[in-house]
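Appendix B. One record, verbatim.
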Amino acid sequence: MANVADLKLEDLKLQRLWVLKLEAEIIEMSINIEDEPDCGSDVDVMSDDGPYILGIPSTEPSSVVTLETNETTKRKRRSVVWDEFTIIDGKGFDDGKNRAECKRWKVTLRDKKVDQDFVRDKITKLIVRHELPLVFVEYEEFRELITYLFSGYTHIAQNTQMSDILRLYNLESIRIRNLLNSFAGRISLTSDLWTSITNDGYIALTAHYIDKDWLLPKKLLKFCILPPPHTGIHICEMVSKILSDWGIDRKLFSITLDNAIANFYFVDLLKKNLNLKNALLCRGLHFHNRCCAHILNLIVQDGMKHIDDSVVLVRSSIAYVKGSHARKVKFLEICKQLGLQSSKGLRADVSTRWNSTYLMLDSALFYYKAFENLELMDDNFKTCPSFEQWLKIERLTSFLYPFYAITVLLSGSKYPTANLYFENVWEIHKSLLEEEFMVSKLAEMDNGSKSQLDIYLDEPKISFNDNEYDEYDVLAF
């Protein structure tokens, strides 16, 4: 039995040595197909894209492997080594190059030749996807890594990399343009404008459509600076040019915008221009949609202005804790003593985004005991809410949660949201009626003028034949 085991081990060693020798010959003595001599010579080759093998006598094997080429002739693989490999077509691989698979060890090999264009294309996509600087291609460590992997690679400068990015942009633009014009369905648009901290105006235009697989993809058509003036006429000129460049001005279904006054003039002008081409369904009767998530944002912001100082105290308390490293350490020690998880963290809010205010209140409510302990330990901490104020914050947070959840739901872009609108807005209206303290706060608005909530809920009444529904209101159902 020992002799048999020794023989098996020796056989495995010999097989392994044979494979290592074969791999070394394939890797170290590979040549390009452009340098391939005539088939009748003693030099043996594989294919246009596989390993190239030198130094093996050209004795006729028991079976000859051939490869179809674009030419009328066939090139023969004359080496006996090809009896040990199976040729795999490169169509199943990203680079399209053929492979050779060892029949004994199932090892897949390919030639060493570096496709310069393929590597540069991958680097370009890496830079674009992860927003890396152009100088990334000039980093010493990056170049050393690429040289180690592909000794024949020619490095490029950042200016050349910029040209590669523009080339990729042009190719992708052509692909997306063909894609948007390849299906018979219509396209819905969303657009938004905002001003940066440098007072530059920007516009973004996104296309949403249903593809042949019944999925709901979106494509960003344009993201660029919008020079002043930001009037309805100027916005209409910019959007019309974008739609014309993409060739989809006759395939539109609707456009969703926020409640900015300029947007109403912009949509009216755009609708008139498209109706001249007879490009809209029902003469554009349902072309313009108001963003429901934006309406909810206006409703909550309008109401938050009239809430008492509890929110201000929470905002000041969080700013105090985050104001210095020593206070952060002290606050974390208190949380540890009270058994509170520090992973949740304190969140500051942004005045223009009410949902960030909800997240701020939610995080502060989780650590309210820590704030109370910090007030006892730190004499300089003067903005901690009282017990009654914490109760108001708890009630306010529970009241704002439906708004937050519905805003997140209606802001989705991977699924339809039109069917979710009515039910969720009704839920909010019902919540407002049930929360008497919030309704009373909203009723104390200045000068008796209509708020965003009043305007949005001021729906026309619908009469029915049944007397029971003579005073039926859509949102009061």
